[in-house]
Amino acid sequence: MKKLVAIASAAVLGLGLAACDSGAENAAEDQAAATEAAVDAQADAVEDSAQGTATEEAAEDKADAMRDQADATADAKEDAADKMDSGTPE
Q1: Once rounded to an integer, what is the mean pLDDT over residues 78-89?
Q2: Is 13 inside any structural domain?
Q3: How far apart are CA 29 and CA 35, in angstroms?
Q4: Distance (Å, rounded) from C-alpha 36 to C-alpha 71?
Q5: How many domains does the chain have?
Q6: Closest Cα partner for 70 from 46, 53, 50?
Q7: Which helix (H) or strand (E) holds 49?
Q8: d(CA 22, CA 87)
Q9: Residue 3 lies in a domain
């Protein structure tokens, strides 16, 4: 009986956590992550294009700055999405 209660409690807790984010919040967070991934790919291209050249170090610095900015922007968008959530489950 204790095992059944423990399993049921875990299931209820899991469902409750899954319903915390609204669909709009998840969409905004997904968009932020996709934008960050796209900038990361661009940064990789910047690094790759300068590899073995005299501008390689400058390109790496630029790529790092691009990634840092994209990360900060994505974090800000995700924080904004958390605040806009009205609690409506998916």
Answers
A1: 72
A2: no
A3: 10
A4: 6
A5: 1
A6: 46
A7: helix 23-50
A8: 6
A9: no
pTM (whole model) above 0.70: no
* 16 part of a folded domain: no
- Residues with Cβ within 8 Å of residue 69, at least 6 apart in sequence: 39
Measured CA to CA, the distance from residue 22 to residue 26 in angstroms comes to 6
Specify the pLDDT at position 3: 52
Q: Structural domain of residue 80, as residue ranges?
A: 22-84
Cα 64 from Cα 72, distance rounded (Å): 12
Confidence label for 24 from pLDDT (cuts 50, 70 and 90):
confident
Going by pLDDT thresholds of 50, 70 and 90, the confidence category of residue 81 is confident
Three-state DSSP class for residue 52: coil
For the segment 21-50, the average pLDDT, to the nearest whole number, is: 91
